[in-house]
Amino acid sequence: MFEAKVASAVILKKIIDSIRDLVSDVNLDITSEGIGLQAMDSSHVALVSLTLHQKGFSEYNLEKPVTIGISVSNLAKVMKLASNDDEITLGLAEEPSHLKVVFMNKKQEKRTQFDLNLLTLDSEHLGIPDTNYTSEIMMNSFEFSKLIKELNTLCDTVTIETTIEYVRFSLESDVGIGNIQIQTSEPAEKKEDAADDPKEDTPVIQSFALKYLNMFNKASCLSNSVKLMMAAETPLVVEFEIEDIGELKYYLAPKINNDAPQ
Amino acid sequence: MFEAKVASAVILKKIIDSIRDLVSDVNLDITSEGIGLQAMDSSHVALVSLTLHQKGFSEYNLEKPVTIGISVSNLAKVMKLASNDDEITLGLAEEPSHLKVVFMNKKQEKRTQFDLNLLTLDSEHLGIPDTNYTSEIMMNSFEFSKLIKELNTLCDTVTIETTIEYVRFSLESDVGIGNIQIQTSEPAEKKEDAADDPKEDTPVIQSFALKYLNMFNKASCLSNSVKLMMAAETPLVVEFEIEDIGELKYYLAPKINNDAPQ
Amino acid sequence: MFEAKVASAVILKKIIDSIRDLVSDVNLDITSEGIGLQAMDSSHVALVSLTLHQKGFSEYNLEKPVTIGISVSNLAKVMKLASNDDEITLGLAEEPSHLKVVFMNKKQEKRTQFDLNLLTLDSEHLGIPDTNYTSEIMMNSFEFSKLIKELNTLCDTVTIETTIEYVRFSLESDVGIGNIQIQTSEPAEKKEDAADDPKEDTPVIQSFALKYLNMFNKASCLSNSVKLMMAAETPLVVEFEIEDIGELKYYLAPKINNDAPQ
């Protein structure tokens, strides 16, 4: 048996909209620590990792850990029945055949219940290795989203290069060649520390498919900032903190080097 | 000969947009009481009934009653030539071949005239019987519109159940099963009377095609509230009052019972 | 060698969006007086003429006049990388193979550079003859844009008739016939002069393809007013002044007379 409440539907609606274009049927892992989801897109190039911490729920009661399979696009349709400030209750019976989703509006006069059919899915054990990322960049999420969207109209691949002073996005296509260079604005004291910090001393340069980065953009409504984490020969991590409840990370494998612009 | 004026184009524009998806060629019945329209959709499942009262027009001169056939979608295109606060004059000559539509803007410096060709249509005598509706529900029209739109993404059929305390919309599909229950908020004195009023004592439960209900939604811009009227084995009435001038009613035949969720 | 700066990207973005639907590959003529562009649409019915005066640029350095070929749609995609208030620098090397476009944001921390590949195009010498237009009408550009858009849903051709007192747009289709008549509001002193001015004494009536007029509408965001200039058996000129920097003119050949409504 499981029951959990979220005070306001809007965050869950945005989270589900952020992943529905990338993954279709997924397993949710419900444990005493919270709800987790890890799934690869159908081409196995990108990975979505969502963590919702137990402490982010207003109520959270779980007897024993359980994994349930759901259709993300069906859940997204159900979530649209909620008004943004409805309270949401999620529930599972013993041996559940469905996820019970209840929305109650503020005035307590409108109650929506939907029993979403569960799916039986192979569980993928994805095992994301702990990585020592040599480069971490914070950007305004709206600016990142707009940048990726416009680059995607110009070409297929972007090369991201980070140094201690800037991050540079480069592209090359039959339209021409170009780059966008953004100074990284660290607080002064962090800059002094940087000499001791191997993370910020190692420039990284890697190329990625813009199509996937553009799909990650849906999550820019979840947070004002986005963190890009890179290391050589390692997938890029695009991370959005979700206030008070958890985080949504996208992993994207780099393109092999001979695709990159010079 | 006929001539009638409406002080502001915006209402007529909205009315015509509200019916253009449902009916194409229709007869307008112009009498000393006003302008009326009754038409079935092409599949003969839904019926539109529009009444514009003579007293809602700023001028209204008619020699003798007349029925004219028009193309709703062509009239909608002509209406788009009007600015929202233009004054509209409708006119018919003796033995008319066209409906003369004139828009004059407030500053009296822009005058648009369009002579819309008339059509010769078989006149359907639809004969809507007077029905004693056992259930009448008022809802916020925006909320009703949003609800129907979202349900329509989840399944084809909704079952509507009304009791003295609530109205409940239920659905069942391969996504799962669900319902939305809304308390009916009657003023206290009306509730006391209710015991004497057979209307509010008889629960009704019937199923309807969401596709049509969703087409009625266009009219939600005409009024802040919508009235649902039901009785057993009788078409649902979805009624929008149009301030100062009339009302727009949609009738929708129920689905046969074995389609309904349990 | 050429380098020119514009203080704010938004005007250039709007200009390029205003012509991209009409012309694809064009020559830019860069002289000491400014940047000019003249190009016909692929069906050779409409002509675009853009003039950006040298004094409208915050910097403008040119060694010797040069003509370069560019893809308008590719330039439009590149311009989307700019924020509206970015400063733009355009640059050409000696014997250039590309147009260097640099955007710098206000805070000077984001720099975008794109080297747009140049095209080798046949240069068309279009030679627009000096015409004594017998009719000049100023209209609100938004109102003109809305009018043309709505007429375009009703038919293919509009007949424009100008007199000293009004401009009238007429149409005829199987939907019906109609016209929009707008009084021309000249300042009083101009009206007195009019008796001496042959321009305003000669009514003009000509028919035009709405499809093209509708493509000119994109430019209505460049200026609050639009000037229509007509003379018998001469292309219509639809002119938008672009504040502080230049003007954009569209020329449209009239339809032959037997297409016009009576």
TrEMBL record, chains A, B, C:
Ranges for domain Proliferating cell nuclear antigen PCNA C-terminal come to 127-255
Domain Proliferating cell nuclear antigen PCNA N-terminal, by residue range, is 1-123
Show the GO MF annotations: DNA binding; DNA polymerase processivity factor activity
Q: A GO CC term?
A: PCNA complex
Localization, UniProt: Nucleus
- Lineage: superkingdom: Eukaryota
Set out the biological process GO terms recorded for this chain's protein.
leading strand elongation; mismatch repair; regulation of DNA replication; translesion synthesis
Which Gene3D superfamilies does this UniProt record tie to the protein? DNA Polymerase III, subunit A, domain 2
The answer to whether UniProt assigns keyword 4Fe-4S to this entry is no
Write out the entry's keywords from A to Z: DNA replication, DNA-binding, Nucleus
State the similarity comment.
Answer: Belongs to the PCNA family.
Known function: This protein is an auxiliary protein of DNA polymerase delta and is involved in the control of eukaryotic DNA replication by increasing the polymerase's processivity during elongation of the leading strand.
Q: Could you tell me what this protein is called? A: DNA sliding clamp PCNA
Q: Which organism is it from?
A: Euplotes crassus
